[in-house]
Amino acid sequence: MTLRLGTRGSALALTQSQMVADALTAATGRPVELVRIVTPGDRSDAPVARLGVGVFVSALRDALLAGEIDFAVHSYKDLPTGEHPGLHIAAVPAREDPRDALIARDGLTLAELPPGATVGTGAVRRIAQLHALGLDLQVTPIRGNVDSRIARVLGPEADLDAVVLARAGVARLGRSAEITETLDPMLMLPAPAQGALAVECRADDTDLIELLSALDHAPTRAAVLAERAMFATLEAGCSAPVAAHAEIAEGDDGDEIYLRGAVISPDGVRAIRLSRTGTPAGAAEIGKALAIDLLDAGADTLMGSTE
Ligand SMILES: NCc1[nH]cc(CCC(=O)O)c1CC(=O)O
Questions:
Q1: Which end of the chain is more exposed for a tag (fewer CB within 10 A), N or C?
Q2: Domain boundaries, the chain
Q3: What CA–CA distances, in Å, run from 4 to 15, 30, 163, 184?
Q4: Domain 223-302 homologous superfamily, CATH
Q5: This prediction's pTM
Q6: CB distance 255 to ligand 1 below 6 Å
Q7: What ipTM did this prediction achieve?
């Protein structure tokens, strides 16, 4: 029987969903059809910060719970932290490059942008880290899909010197050649789970969970678990921008996880950066412990604790 994969209608969502559909068919022989779901986030022009991260996700989850679709593919970083009752993340496929990317006019890098250059991004995490560089950049809030953001720099009506985007989204849309600098995590630590996908289905759909597990990539799952555990623990105690990046490397005694985290004041003037290592099996505990380290170091004072 053909499986129904629910997807948003954006070019990025369609591309990601088609990639997962093709991988599933290749691994299991099961045909997959894409079912388009319109989310309130697609209909609104309001800033994502006001709509909340869940807007792109809840319409897909409603369709899943209503049985209109069998599974959904989300950009993992857009998922709210915490388990959703009745649903299960059955696979976390191998992650794309999690770093952020700069697309600037005339092939410029961050260091080559002149003082006062306009750089577009909507994410508080990127805004804070751009300010932290001390380059006198004019950070301009933007939103919209990946193509329209790139058009703000390279399109016929370009009005910005540069934009910062997730490299993964640009790559999936086949536009990596337009990236003028991939930002080192030393300058721009990525968002928790950036570049990763979550393949979700109903928690009681055991046959499908078994089928989808063919797409799971254990190192990516562990890295994302660590990053999001850190994020979830910080959310409770601190409302300042948060960044996280975990890497899995082969050590002498098996695999090691190396998690870096940062909390930055929105104006970029103060930042706390810390890291922890451990085994992938302890990913969630490492994330939680790093969040507590960050809070102990004063993360909550970077913006004031949540009201
Ligand atoms: N916030 C929107 C969003 N959600 C997922 C991606 C693509 C990258 C990814 O899968 O992490 C993007 C675009 C961006 O941040 O530039």
A1: C
A2: 3-93+196-216, 100-182, 223-302
A3: 16, 11, 35, 38
A4: Porphobilinogen deaminase, C-terminal domain (3.30.160.40)
A5: 0.93
A6: no
A7: 0.96
